[in-house]
Amino acid sequence: MESETYTGELSYRDIVFRFVYKQGELRLYPDERDKEVIQHEWLMKAVRPGVYVNGDPLLMEESFLEGRCHELQGGIVFLTQIGSYINSVDCTLIVTVISIIKRATRCATASRLSLFGTCIDYVFPVNRAWKSDFNWDEAQNNGVVSITTSDFDSTTSKRFKVEVGGKEVCVYFSVGWTISHNIENPPITLSSSLSFEFEETSDYSFLLELWYQAKRFLGFMTNQSDVGLLSGRLGHRVENGKYRSFAEMKLTEQMPDFDVTHLSKGRYLTLDKLEGNEEKLFQDVSSNSIYLRHLPRANKDKHVIDASRFVLVTAAFEWEFQRLYPDGVPKKDVRLEGEKQALEIIDREIESSTGETKQALKRAKLSIGFTNLQSKVIHAAKQFSPVIEVFGKRLYDLNGEEFKYSKIGERLAGQRNNFAHGNIDKDFEGVAILDLVYLGYLVLAMQLRYLGISDKGIQKAINDQFGLHVAV
């Protein structure tokens, strides 16, 4: 979380406040002449002349507050949540801040947001940006080793365009470098970035939306929602199509205790594993059409399987099943004919019934043609058998259990229903843990297939994200 302190002045609801900001909390101090207005018009309400009671809760009415800052030449912007509660102590207002933008110049509009962080260094590997020219004799005799950075073309990904918040955005990854002559810093530092370019805007909420979508994209690539500390730089377009950075942007809720174990062990997807389908993935993330709520929050949560995780992973499967198989599980003609006749019969009964009987028949009609979780699991598992059966067999063989689609589907459906309906008195089948792990493989395979990833690419991705090391 941001630990520096900033002070200055800003205006809110036509009143000028002195402010102090630290660690996500913004305190607004009014002048003495404005305290009466805040006390009697903002915080309290009159029940009759001269008699006041506590008023309705004070809510934030602006998405951002822009102020003059004593510590920053260009000023500071505090991004807030419209409708959030504003606390008060003796007319001092306490505002929760989502993000801050620290400006080095007075520039008020941006056309590029670049994000940096450890997670990005792995997803778009930073080591692609340099090569060593190592002559053994020269190194041994003279101690000379040469390191050369790669050119811009080889350190920049393919650019693609997506729509975010109704605006067209150009997205790409790249690797940049900085040189330092200070003793305490490395002479050269390489860092990867995820950049967004767009039409010049002062819509700070849009910048925040880009940041959130980037986190979700990186969460899919690393199989967890916590992607570690990210920092942002805002730039505006100058001559020759170049950009000049003018501000830093940070989220206030980011915590520094990020466990990089999964990254150091290679349990993530690099951009090239998407086989050029990053545009489709980012658009699916932005439009909320890909299911990501089942991702563990952090590395330590990946080995925890409880009721909520069980329900979320099965929900992810059902969501992705609907995307990949919109017509559901194929049915034989005789079954389709039977369902058709059943619907005709129940429709006639509904027409001739009244009251609770009619309502019960309507509810019963919904179950005709319904495909349960077990049938969906069996169908998807068979469809993906050439791709992930090798992972499933290994998982169950290592645990001395039978690998059979019908049994897996039956256990998953039964256990999910027990959890979903609060039947906590039902015994938990230990082998259902294996079923859920296997279902995780299947969900990722379905998501990647929908994106257009090849079968071989899906196998490599499962090996990487789950650290399986299975020969495929």
Please characterize this protein's 3D structure.
The chain is of the alpha+beta class and 472 residues long. The chain has four domains: 5-102; 110-286, no CATH class; 305-329 and 371-466, no CATH class; 331-370. The protein has helices at residues 32-43, 118-123, 136-142, 204-222, 261-264, 278-286, 307-324, 333-351, 355-366, 373-383, 385-398, 405-420, 431-451, 455-466, and strands at 5-12, 15-22, 25-30, 44-48, 51-54, 64-69, 76-79, 87-89, 92-96, 99-103, 110-116, 130-133, 146-149, 160-164, 167-179, 188-201, 231-237, 243-251. It has a 14-stranded antiparallel sheet with strand order 8-9-3-2-1-6-7-10-18-17-11-16-15-14. Strands 4-5 form a two-stranded antiparallel ribbon. Strand 8 and strand 9 (92-96) form a beta hairpin. Helix 7 crosses helix 12 (405-420) and helix 8 (333-351) packs antiparallel against helix 9. It is flat and about 80 Å long. The two termini are 43 Å apart. The model has no long low-confidence stretch (mean pLDDT 89).
Concise structural overview:
Helices cover 38% and strands 25% of the residues. It has 472 residues and is of the alpha+beta class.
Strand count, sense and closure of the main sheet? 14 strands, antiparallel
- What's the rounded overall pLDDT mean? 89
Question: What are the low-pLDDT stretches, counting only 5+ consecutive residues below 50?
Answer: none
Distance between the termini: 43 Å
The domain count comes to 4
Bin the helical content. Answer: 25-40%
Strand order of the largest sheet: 8-9-3-2-1-6-7-10-18-17-11-16-15-14
Please work out how many helical segments DSSP would assign: 14
- How does the overall form come out from the CA principal axes? flat
- Proportion of β residues? 15-25%
- Give me the Rg, rounded: 28 Å
- In total, the number of strands is 18
- The oligomeric state is single chain
Content-based structural category: alpha+beta
